[in-house]
Amino acid sequence: MKIALVRVNYNSKYITPPLGLGYLASYAEKYGHEVLIIDALRDNLSNKEVVEIIDKQGISAVGITCLSFFYNEVVELSKMLKNEGKKVFIGGVHPTFNPKQTLIDTQADYVSLGEGEIALKKLLDANFDGEGILGIYNLKNLPEVPLKGEKVENLDDLPFPDWEQMPPDKYPIISGEISKKYPIGIIATTRGCPFSCKFCQSPAFYERKIRFRSPENVVDEIEFLVKKFGVKEIHFEDDNFTLKREHAYEICRLIVERKIKISFTCPNGIRAEFTDEKLMQMMKKAGCYCIAYGIESANPEILKNISKNENLDLIKKSVELASNCGILTKGFFIFGLEGETKQTIKQTIQYAISLKLTLADFNILSIFPDENNQKNNEQKVLSEKLSQNDLIRAKNSAIFKFYSRPQIWFRLIKNFFDK
Prior knowledge:
The protein has helices spanning 19-30, 40-43, 47-56, 71-83, 93-97, 99-106, 117-125, 202-206, 215-229, 245-257, 277-286, 300-305, 312-324, 342-354, 388-403, 406-417; strands at residues 2-7, 34-39, 61-65, 87-91, 110-112, 136-137, 184-187, 190-192, 210-212, 233-236, 263-270, 288-296, 328-335, 359-364. It is of the alpha/beta class.
């Protein structure tokens, strides 16, 4: 059976290959199905143009990936496809946690909950009859507590994403403010995270479990991307690349052993307690030039409120260790978390400035979906003592105070010339 898998066009300053669709496509293709990936974000396609492409290809079944941030665009596309008589299913984080409302709003035939490779393969095998397939539901068979789809437990059993339909050189703008070399390939070496940060969807989506690809499988994919597509840089998109130090170390060691000439970065953020000098030095030797840290706040009570069980002193030591190894660092911070005040914001800004960071990303907490308002650009404020305008002013102040220091620009300029 032939199917189109779609990422809609939406307002985003970063455009990365849709790894999830790439895995869905390659897994279905492994079992004889024909898959067309339509990346409307990359190609700047309207929903109308997406429908026209699907019609011209004679495709009758369409899967759409859905995050809350671009939910409205998914709803519009799904309705347009249904008006054309297409079969539609919606997958991703949003329908996993809001299956009933997603089915009502999109008029889709099915939603897919959780990881979708096995569920999609079974749906296509059954000629789009989802009856009895775990993780696939419509309004008639949606239970009170629906179960997620079956997972591929051994990640090495998954074929590499369908890179032929997502060639890295077609994605010039990749996650993160700095990059050294192009083209860039993105790779996930794990799925899931064992922690329970309240602002993150991963604990609920992956049920606080983590699975690892073997280091050999990861480095095989890196070699494939280098040889097939001329990739010169890798972005590891794991929730935490260094969670198992020996796993990260072995990946880096194999890169060195196989003499693969790449640069790489960990833009999603790592946890400080899972780093040490031996690992940092091996990462640097393998080509690592930048690491991000998910810090969020410098107030211990706020970190406790969001179940972010990290030690601020350890973060400081890890950032300094990375810097001493010649690795640039970036910190992620969130304003507006539970318990936030003007004083805790000042505390976080001062802490950010005290760290040996090269970059800092100050964000305002966004809560999606909001059951009272489906507009994507509206945010809910958790703190009773701060308004949305207070948070916007705090963000602007933090950016100015952090980046107005000469040493930050020295570090950035050094990276630019250190190719």
